[in-house]
Amino acid sequence: MDLSVTDFLALDAVTVQFGALRAVDEVSLRVRKGERRAIIGPNGAGKTTLFNAITGVVRATTGKVLFEGADVTRTAIHERARRGMSRTFQITNLFPNLTVAENMRLALRGLSPRKFSLLGSPALNSEEAGRADRALEVSRLGARRDSRVKEMSYGEQRQLEMAMALAAQPRLLLLDEPAAGLSPSERVIVSDIIRALPRDLTLVLIEHDMDLVLSLVDYVTVLNNGKLLVEAPPAEIRLNKDVQDVYLGKARHHA
Ligand SMILES: Nc1ncnc2c1ncn2[C@@H]1O[C@H](COP(=O)(O)OP(=O)(O)OP(=O)(O)O)[C@@H](O)[C@H]1O
């Protein structure tokens, strides 16, 4: 077996502890290059904390995170980003008074809005501008470059977040609830965008909408109380009794 293919992203017994709470409890998983993986589970299961441990927002208390064979467990966020990890957040992270193009510039330069206003509007070089344009096209915002973020729909704002994450040309893209808060028609747009992403881009996504998620991914990891409950292809997930008890049952009660 080719280890460089099988172990694109590997978590070995990762635990993230907040005081007495094990938000993530000895989770091990392997994601292959080009795979599309969903992380699902009820509220508080540890999904976002697991994302944070992968990207470096929090450090694993114990266990290891390996990215393309390198141990990145203690590596800073920006260094993990430089190695090819990119993510979106559950809550939008945009600058509402700036245009789409200006937000893209900030994302590419990693600047704060304060520095941005002090420096004016530093132009992108042609390679960066090309990347920004391609990411906007893929995210179906090619015609919205000059729109102010605050004038766009929430769905378009989520698309812009995706464009900003894609502009970094990641090899691993992590999407935290990309369809949360969207209308049914906006969900269709976001799922079409995700489906059309290059197949060699490895994708890990958290999503509460089961129909959406099961139609997008190759494999599903279910967390419950910080622990890995089930790993299976989408077709098996709906039929799994443990998943029905723990996840679908709770989701029905929420509805
Ligand atoms: N910084 C923190 N300090 C203390 N506890 C935290 C922190 N971050 C998360 N938690 C707790 O860890 C547990 C897991 O939270 P997490 O946000 O990872 O779950 P989740 O599966 O993403 O939930 P949701 O679906 O509601 O977003 C929860 O009990 C949460 O309250």
CATH architecture of the largest domain: 3-Layer(aba) Sandwich
**Average pLDDT for all residues:** 89
Proportion of residues in β-strands: 15-25%
Instruction: Give me the count of strands.
Output: 10
Q: Radius of gyration, rounded?
A: 18 Å
Protein name: Amino acid/amide ABC transporter ATP-binding protein 1 (HAAT family)
Organism: Aquabacter spiritensis
Keywords: ATP-binding, Nucleotide-binding, Transport
Domain ABC transporter: 9-250
Describe, in short, the structure shown.
With 255 residues, the chain is α/β, with parallel strands linked by helices.
Observed structural traits:
255 residues; alpha/beta; Rossmann fold; 2 domains; 6-stranded mixed sheet; 4-stranded antiparallel sheet; 11 helices; 10 strands; disordered N terminus; binds adenosine-5'-triphosphate; ATP-binding
Q: Can you describe this structure?
A:
There is one protein chain. The protein is 39% helix and 23% strand. With 255 residues, the protein is α/β, with parallel strands linked by helices. The chain has helices spanning 3-6, 47-55, 77-82, 100-109, 113-119, 126-138, 154-167, 184-195, 210-216, 234-237, 241-254; strands at 9-18, 21-31, 36-40, 62-67, 70-71, 85-87, 172-176, 202-206, 219-224, 227-232. Helix 8 (184-195) links the parallel strand 7 (172-176) and strand 8. It is globular. It folds into two domains: 1-84 and 171-255, 3-Layer(aba) Sandwich (Rossmann fold); 93-169, no CATH class. It has a six-stranded mixed sheet, sandwiched between helices. A four-stranded antiparallel sheet has the order 2-1-4-5, with helices on one face. Helix 4 (100-109) packs parallel to helix 7 and helix 6 crosses helix 7. Bound molecules: adenosine-5'-triphosphate (ATP). The site of adenosine-5'-triphosphate has 11 residues, from strand 2 and helix 2. Adenosine-5'-triphosphate (ATP) binds next to strand 2 and helix 2.
